[in-house]
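I have a small job for you when you get a moment. Would you make up a two-line entry for one protein for me to read? No commentary is needed, just the two lines. Write everything out right here, beneath this request.
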Amino acid sequence: QELADALAAEFEVPVALAGDAVSAHAGAFRGARGTIVVVGTGTVLITSDGAGSVRQVDGWGPWLGDEGSGRWIGQEGLRAVLAAADGRGSATTLTAAAEALHRPLSEMPWWISATGSPARRLASFAPAVLAAAAAGDEVARTIVEHASDAVVAACRATTGPYCLVGGVVDDPQMRRRVEDALVAGGAETRPPLGDALSGARYLAESADAYARSVIRRGRP
């Protein structure tokens, strides 16, 4: 509320302040019932009953949640590489991809932790895992299967229809696995009506369906 008040005072305009996932839902559904499933570096779902009840599922950050996310996929991929390197796991083509990121592999833990955003650095390996899975690498394929299962499990704690957005579910195999599982369970998937920017405009102009999720100072 302090931030909304400060912005309103500085720019002399009404202010509507909301999280980016809520804006994404507003863009996708315009206040209607449904769930936006955002799977990028992290994983967060925003579900609404269309009558003002808006709820978050997952989105608990890289150490406590974000299952099936780019960070999760990248982390599992690098764990598999290190397991193969020390004899605990199966050989995988991900080893060459990991060495292209940083070598020697023995320094990989330091390389991950040395950045100001370990989660983002872990997520940078996700495209390599997705590509290896598409090419038939069994280790990578198992990781992608588990990631899609985690996203579907999160969806089951919400209400459809579903809009899938984000870099990870833009990958054809991830999208296919998640959508097929949802449809098999009787759910509907659909493209979003608009993006998060259009959702932000919707929240600024009229946000009755999101009243409990938007902090306001003044009215438009």
User: Anything to note?
Assistant: The mean pLDDT is 94. The chain has two domains: 2-61+160-217, 70-148.
